[in-house]
Specification:
This protein has one domain. The chain is mainly alpha-helical and 204 residues long. Helix 2 (23-40) runs antiparallel to helix 3 (48-69), helix 2 runs parallel beside helix 4 and helix 7 (146-163) packs antiparallel against helix 8. Mean pLDDT is 85; it is low at 1-7 and 198-204. The longest helix has 27 residues, at 78-104. The chain contains 8 helices and no strands.
């Protein structure tokens, strides 16, 4: 039983290490920036360019993260490592679909509701609330404290959007903090785990 718990602990540590490179933050932030422009331009659907950063996540992990850490340090299971990349990408896609439906459209009739009963922009608050709740997924799954920061910022931005701040500004603020902290994580990660030097036999 203790061996099983030890293996689970080791896997959690490996998962956390795998996502200390900041790439999830950078990709999510870039996606939100593009989505913010969709909102600003009043697009009915998310543009094709908005989805591009999510597609790059796997490539960034394979070229930067895995070579620096090595598969053995990550548990040696290639399928598990692929899942660790696939799951956040899938969550981002689901989030983008939900945000597109709720923010670019109005399936819940929030605009009519707020004009009748509520003084603020309920539509914008719900959009930011979706982002805040989505940030809690990696916060508990990985877990990494910085995702709690993103969730708190998104919730605060939602309140600001409800009263006075245009929703695209709130999205840009959330995205900027994600990218900034993500870049910081990436720099710290690359310094802590430099690429292994090539052996003479590997050069040929």
């Amino acid at each position: 039983m203790s061996e099983k718990n030890s293996n689970q602990t080791n896997l959690k540590e490996a998962l956390k290490l795998f996502h200390q490179d900041g790439f999830i933050d950078i990709i999510a932030g870039a996606t939100l920036v593009n989505f913010g422009f969709d909102v600003l331009n009043s697009n009915e659907t998310t543009s094709l360019f908005t989805w591009v950063p999510i597609i790059l996540l796997s490539s960034m992990k394979n070229k930067t993260t895995i070579p620096r850490l090595g598969k053995e340090r990550l548990g040696g299971d290639e399928n598990r490592i692929k899942k660790w990349t696939f799951i956040p990408a899938a969550v981002m896609i689901i989030l983008l679909v939900i945000l597109g439906i709720l923010t670019l459209g109005d399936p819940l009739g929030l605009k009519a509701l707020q004009s009748r009963f509520l003084p603020g922009n309920l539509h914008a608050f719900v959009g930011c609330l979706v982002i805040a709740l989505s940030c809690l997924v990696p916060a508990f799954w990985i877990p990494e404290k910085r995702f709690f920061i993103y969730s708190a910022v998104a919730f605060a931005a939602g309140i600001a959007s409800y009263f006075f701040l245009p929703i695209h500004f709130s999205i840009f603020i959330i995205a900027a903090i994600m990218v900034a902290l993500g870049l910081r994580c990436m720099v710290l990660f690359t310094r802590a785990y430099p690429l292994p030097e090539l052996k003479e036999g590997d050069e040929n």
